[in-house]
Amino acid sequence: MMKGSRMAGQLLKQLGPRLFSTATLGEPATEILTTGTYSSFFHTTTTKTGVPGRTSMAWVRFPAVGVRHRSTMAMNKEGEEKEVKTGSGSAGGELEGKAMITSYWGISPSKVTKEDGTEWKWSCFRPWETYKANTSIDLKKHHIPNTMLDKLAYWTVKTLRYPTDLFFKTRYDSRAMLLETVAAVPGMAGGMLLHLKSLRRFEHSGGWIKALLEEAENERMHLMTFLEISQPRWFDRALVFAVQGVFFNAYFLGYLISPKFAHRVVGYLEEEAIHTYTEFLKELDNGNIKDVPAPAIAIDYWQMAPDSTLRDVVVVLRADEAHHRDVNHFASDIHYQGLELREAPAPIGYH
């Protein structure tokens, strides 16, 4: 008991200055004040003659739960409080014209405009992150599996293709959405592991962290584009949950064991993506899938012509996948030569 009392006394001694402060007030201060986050308790002392002498006050600070998220007040330049509203964007990242405000911390969203002076409406990417896709890339390049590890990677991807063919058949829009949810995983997982490796070894990554995260972001933008064209059904979403849970953990472990195997798997996965988009184009050309106007997000992200259609979008998506194919086969080749990725500069911006 004595030991516990001493520990409580030491704890109170340490926390007392943070939780309590005293102040001496005059006679009029005789009531208990309560604010949203503070409560003040007054204790009045008396003199020997029975006349109230002074009043001491102890402030107790209670946690302001949710204040950060519920507060709608900000200070303007003159120090006066004003009510503010926070704007929100749509699912695709498009701003809906609502006023964005300076936060309590003094952070204000940057206002970006296009070259013609009109306001940039996407918050998920900026004009300097857009690019024109290089559609002249060789789509028929293929890495012939020679080693046992390469053959294992090749047949792993081929095996995964059969259930997707059986499930989606000719629904290439839904198939592409699932493909992009899978294709966006390796870059993030590999970039994360390289990031941790760079921290552990106190060494640079040769730009490969950025290159892999750039790949993951590009694949995610593919998905955001398809969401503007068609919405996944409940069983599509359920399949994504299952596939992502299995694939992320499997790829994470695979990358830890053998990065050259992991990158080779992605290289072959991108080859399958090229095949999928080629079949998608055939369905569009045959009229089996309606060639609707291209989504606005795709036009801005790939700097496409305003009158572009879904076919044009699929063409640039296929070109992106071909570039990702080359990057991952290149990364695997670096490991096969007994080198670290950091020893070969990463192809940053290679879309």
If you had to describe this structure to a student in words, what would you say it looks like?
By secondary structure, the protein is mainly alpha-helical. Helices cover 51% and strands 8% of the residues. It has helices at 2-19, 67-70, 148-168, 172-201, 208-229, 234-257, 259-285, 296-301, 310-336, and strands at residues 22-25, 38-46, 52-61, 73-75, 81-83. A 3-stranded antiparallel beta sheet has the order 1-3-2, with no helix packed on it. A two-stranded antiparallel ribbon has the order 4-5. Helix 4 (172-201) packs antiparallel against helix 5. Mean pLDDT is 78; it is low at 18-92.
Features of this protein?
single chain; 351 residues; mainly alpha; 9 helices; 5 strands; globular
